[in-house]
């Protein structure tokens, strides 16, 4: 399916990576031995390549091939030493230095700042002097702490900025609807993370987390199992659009995301492997392509989730949100950093959750999980008691959440409580990855209303 995604998303790049290699998977190539978060030597950030070094120490930070001799007088440089018959440049002869000087050079050696002759002398000395070898190890570990670990991936906002710039110059013939752009971006980012996974990473254990009846719930699976879960739940949107159901002949007990996932997992005779990536990836392409060909006019199409339904434009945003959340689960399982979505997409995810909160509050009130309303329900469209939800940072904004009725109107004049949260933190609360007690960065006002809203946000989560 290389290059068949419609713009934005046209072309060989989906997540800011180079064009695909011989396998044609639509993403960047990975040289032999590389993987997500890998360097060119196939190691993960912060891990040693395992090369030889004196006294069992890891290679020096920033170590480069031995430099040539210092420049000669007059500013001209001497030619580098000639390679031997084997093509290998000979190791510089170690300088003759006493113990005191060698000890003073340990810090520079740990930073790879010694001259070649000095480095050779230090390395020879470390093989003979235990106290200096211990000190060198401590210094090397200290240098590692000074290095700030960073993701090797590009800024998640770069793809959006590049596409926006390109589309300003040349509008697409068949544009992706604005409400599907977050799904397009998040599936591309997750696919880029998966492309270099080896067998061990596909079988890495992942623990899915969500809230049910105000209790934290978990389900153990693997990276491949998570992708199978995304495939089956995205399939609910596919069925609503008239596309094939990934379950095929497999029957689920109920048409809910959890029941469909469990049925798909049970139907597998052996644990899922990397082979699940291809159907998931093809389905994401088909979904974006289908909604694009409709011209965005299908945004109001209902998508059933079993116990409730969402219009298609919200269902696509819901799927983008879950894709990001489970991508973080996968990245955590393989010890790899993963950034939140761009501010524009994160804002829409927060907005979807904020719009769903009044109905969730009402459902919790009926089941006895939220405090009852002590007075008559507010008439539809009328202002009532409200909580101000302030989201800070990327994707931020403010929402007035009506507390007494889903049909009521949020009102600043009737504000009884105020809660402030970081955008990504609020989304993790809505995903069941953060407890309500840990989530609030700041809260003022009616404590009961604040508790009800925070627990309602957590109850938005599901498998």
Describe the structure.
By secondary structure, the chain is an alpha+beta fold. The chain is built from 15 helices and 8 strands. It has helices at residues 99-104, 106-110, 116-126, 130-146, 156-169, 181-194, 199-202, 223-240, 257-267, 277-293, 312-333, 343-366, 423-430, 436-439, 447-458; strands spanning 205-212, 215-222, 302-304, 309-311, 383-392, 397-402, 409-422, 442-445. It has a 4-stranded mixed beta sheet. It has a two-stranded antiparallel sheet with strand order 1-2. Strands 3-4 form a two-stranded antiparallel ribbon. Helix 6 packs antiparallel against helix 10 and helix 12 (343-366) crosses helix 15. The longest helix is centred in the C-terminal third of the chain and has 24 residues, at 343-366. The two termini are 29 Å apart. Residues 1-80 have low confidence and may be disordered.
Widest sheet, order of strands:
6-5-7-8
> Could you name the ranges where pLDDT drops below 50 across 5 or more consecutive residues?
1-80
Secondary structure tally: strands: 8
Radius of gyration: 28 Å
Measure the end-to-end span.
29 Å
Report mean pLDDT, rounded to a whole number.
Answer: 80
Please bin the fraction of helical residues.
Answer: 40-55%
N-to-C series of helices and strands: HHHHHHHEEHHHEEHHEEEHHEH
Number of helical elements:
15
- Which secondary-structure class do the elements indicate? alpha+beta
Strand content: 5-15%
Q: Profile the largest sheet.
A: 4 strands, mixed
Shape: globular
């Amino acid at each position: 399916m290389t290059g068949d995604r419609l713009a934005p998303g046209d072309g060989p790049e989906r997540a800011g990576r180079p064009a695909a290699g011989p396998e044609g998977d639509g993403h960047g190539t990975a040289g032999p031995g590389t993987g997500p978060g890998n360097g060119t030597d196939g190691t993960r950030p912060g891990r040693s390549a395992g090369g030889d070094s004196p006294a069992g120490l890891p290679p020096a930070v920033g170590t480069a091939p031995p430099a040539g001799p210092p420049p000669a007088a007059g500013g001209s440089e001497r030619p580098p030493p000639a390679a031997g018959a084997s093509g290998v440049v000979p190791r510089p002869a170690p300088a003759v230095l006493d113990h005191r000087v060698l000890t003073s050079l340990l810090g520079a050696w740990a930073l790879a700042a010694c001259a070649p002759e000095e480095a050779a002398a230090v390395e020879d000395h470390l093989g003979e002097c235990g106290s200096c070898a211990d000190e060198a190890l401590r210094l090397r570990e200290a240098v590692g702490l000074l290095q700030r670990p960073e993701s090797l991936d590009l800024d998640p906002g770069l793809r959006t900025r590049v596409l926006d710039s390109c589309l300003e110059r040349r509008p697409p013939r068949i544009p992706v609807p604005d409400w599907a752009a977050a799904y397009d971006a998040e599936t591309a980012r997750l696919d880029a993370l998966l492309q270099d996974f080896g067998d061990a990473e596909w079988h890495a254990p992942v623990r899915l987390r969500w809230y049910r009846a105000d209790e934290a719930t978990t389900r153990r699976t693997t990276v491949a199992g998570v992708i199978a879960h995304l495939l089956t739940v995205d399939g609910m949107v596919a069925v609503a659009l008239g596309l094939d159901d990934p379950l095929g002949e497999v029957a689920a007990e109920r048409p809910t995301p959890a029941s469909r996932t469990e049925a798909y997992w049970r139907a597998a005779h052996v644990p899922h492997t990397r082979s699940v990536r291809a159907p998931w990836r093809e389905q994401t392409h088909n979904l974006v392509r289908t909604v694009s060909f409709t011209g965005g006019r299908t945004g109001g199409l209902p998508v059933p989730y079993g116990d409730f339904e969402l219009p298609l434009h919200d269902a696509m945003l819901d799927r983008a949100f879950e894709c990001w959340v489970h991508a973080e689960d996968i990245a955590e399982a393989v010890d790899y950093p993963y950034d939140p979505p761009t501010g524009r997409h994160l804002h829409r995810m927060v907005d979807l959750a904020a719009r769903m909160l009044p109905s969730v509050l009402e459902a919790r009130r009926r089941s006895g999980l939220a405090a009852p309303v002590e007075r008559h329900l507010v008439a539809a469209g009328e202002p009532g008691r409200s909580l101000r939800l302030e989201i800070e940072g990327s994707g931020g904004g403010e929402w007035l959440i009506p507390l007494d009725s889903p049909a009521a109107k949020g009102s600043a004049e009737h504000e009884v409580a105020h809660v402030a949260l970081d955008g990504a933190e609020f989304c993790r609360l809505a995903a069941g990855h953060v407890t309500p007690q840990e989530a609030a960065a700041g809260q003022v006002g009616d404590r009961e209303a604040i508790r009800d809203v925070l627990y309602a946000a957590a109850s938005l989560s599901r498998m």
